[in-house]
Known about the structure:
One of its GO terms (biological process) is lysine biosynthetic process via diaminopimelate. By secondary structure, the chain is an alpha+beta fold. The chain has two domains: about 1-115 and about 250-260, Diaminopimelate Epimerase, Chain A, domain 1, CATH 3.10.310; about 125-245, Diaminopimelate Epimerase, Chain A, domain 1 (Roll), CATH 3.10.310.10. It is about 15% helix and about 40% strand. The chain has four helices and 17 strands. It has helices spanning about 30-35, 75-85, 150-160, 200-215; strands spanning about 1-10, 15-20, 45-50, 60-65, 95-100, 100-105, 110-115, 125, 130, 135-140, 170-180, 180-190, 195, 220-225, 225-235, 240-245, 250-260. The strands form two sheets. Strands 5, 6, 7, 8, 9, 10, 11, 12, 13, 14, 15 and 16 form a twelve-stranded mixed β-sheet that branches. A five-stranded mixed β-sheet has the order 4-3-2-1-17, with helices on both faces. A hairpin with a 4-residue loop joins strand 6 and strand 7 (about 110-115). It is globular, with a radius of gyration of 18 Å. The mean pLDDT is about 95. Bound molecules: 2,6-diaminopimelic acid.
Amino acid sequence: MLLNFYKYQGTGNDFILIDDRTESFPVSTQLVARLCHRRFGIGADGLILLRNEPGYDFRMVYFNADGAEGSMCGNGGRCTVRFAHDLGIFQEHTTFMAVDGVHEATANEHSIRLKMSPVGDSEQHETYDFLDTGSPHYVAYVDDVDKTDVVTIGRAVRYGETYGPRGGTNVNFVQVVSPNFLKVRTYERGVEDETYSCGTGVTACALSSHAHFGWESPVDIAVVGGNLQVEFRKLESGQFDDIYLIGPAVRVYEGTLEIETI
Ligand SMILES: N[C@H](CCC[C@H](N)C(=O)O)C(=O)O
């Protein structure tokens, strides 16, 4: 079977995008993992199918690089919105379905503004915060992210006794640069490595910074692969709503491959 695919990246978090409105992609963990493999396949942090969804512009079906269907992916969501825009599915504003529910987004030439699901208040532990922004996120503040061993510590937390048995967690390391400006590095579950950016991760870090320092929206975040911005509103109930993840999402290339040969 001949597969047409597109490669997108959002601040260096990269994805294989497939227009699967005909639902003909032969989903299997093995195939997805192989396509995402950086030596045997195309190479990506994840694979996303764009499918039809009645009542919405499209549905985003996201798989981690290990081939398992993942929880919400913020940068993947932004890339899927750019892909839908490139396909002519919408002009300026879209409403689509993802694994954690309905999302809205707007596109302009430079960036995608994606509305994230509401988030409950952050869980504050002695040495870290924990938030679910569509995916689970451990957030730890450090003095210097560049001097942090993201993979070793990230892996220990992801497989550790608290989160390991619960399906694991993504692990973010946060450095305060100046008021409303963070620098973040993330170990991603499902990729099992550091990625250049994690959208649900920086969202968790921005909400955590509100709890720690009382910072108001928006918060700017520098990640390895670029810059993102997070807007939010804290409700009386303690919940966060009107959360937006804003930043670039870019088509890198498109290609064709014979599935049977990979
Ligand atoms: N890169 C993604 C996160 C994917 C979530 C996944 N790593 C998991 O929790 O299994 C993002 O931009 O939000």
